[in-house]
């Protein structure tokens, strides 16, 4: 097989030939990167408000928080993942792509998070798949809280 092993890791690595043959270059899902202005503040938000676990931090530039298999890479102004693009565009927080967290009793959760003075982009929406609302982290990055609908 066209796989090699990195001596420092038990993760199989595909050789360049194997990548070219199949067009599959991704080894696994690594995480979601969010641009933030203050890494410490973001770590506190994700760990204290949403129950994430702090995996790693290099303050003030970077931290990695996790919830189950989800890893969010928090890149502050000094992180390599935050540097301007070659054309001069700056990477900034916000946007509409988002992490979706499955929750239980969305209405009660919304009420509790509002009491903690967290910011929501919208009111709870109800659709055929369930209920959802968009919460913002301290830098305006969206997090969707989603309660699946009950199957009949």
Question: What would you note in describing this structure?
Answer:
The chain is of the alpha+beta class and 152 residues long. It has a single domain, classed as 2,3-Dihydroxybiphenyl 1,2-Dioxygenase, domain 1, CATH 3.10.180. Helix content is 18%, strand content 32%. It is built from three helices and ten strands. It has helices at residues 16-22, 39-49, 106-115, and strands at 3-5, 12-14, 32-35, 53-58, 62-67, 70-75, 99-102, 125-127, 130-136, 142-148. A four-stranded mixed sheet has the order 3-6-5-4, covered by helices on one side. The chain has a four-stranded mixed sheet with strand order 7-10-9-8, with no helix packed on it. It has a two-stranded antiparallel sheet with strand order 1-2. Strand 9 and strand 10 form a beta hairpin. It is globular, with a radius of gyration of 19 Å. It starts with a strand and ends with a strand. The model is unreliable at 1-9 (pLDDT under 50).
């Amino acid at each position: 097989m066209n796989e090699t092993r990195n001596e420092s890791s038990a993760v199989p690595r595909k050789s360049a030939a194997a990548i070219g043959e199949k067009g599959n270059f991704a080894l696994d899902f690594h995480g979601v990167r969010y641009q933030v202005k203050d890494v410490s503040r973001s770590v506190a938000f994700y760990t204290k408000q949403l129950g994430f676990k702090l995996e790693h931090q290099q303050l003030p530039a970077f931290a990695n928080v996790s919830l189950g298999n989800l890893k969010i890479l928090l890149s502050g102004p000094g992180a390599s993942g935050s540097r301007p693009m070659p054309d001069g565009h700056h990477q900034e927080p916000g946007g509409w792509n988002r992490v979706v967290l499955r929750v239980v009793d969305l209405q009660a959760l919304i009420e509790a998070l509002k009491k903690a003075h967290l910011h929501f982009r919208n009111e709870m929406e109800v659709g055929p798949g369930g209920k959802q609302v968009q919460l913002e982290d301290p830098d305006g990055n969206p997090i969707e809280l989603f309660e699946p609908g009950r199957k009949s």
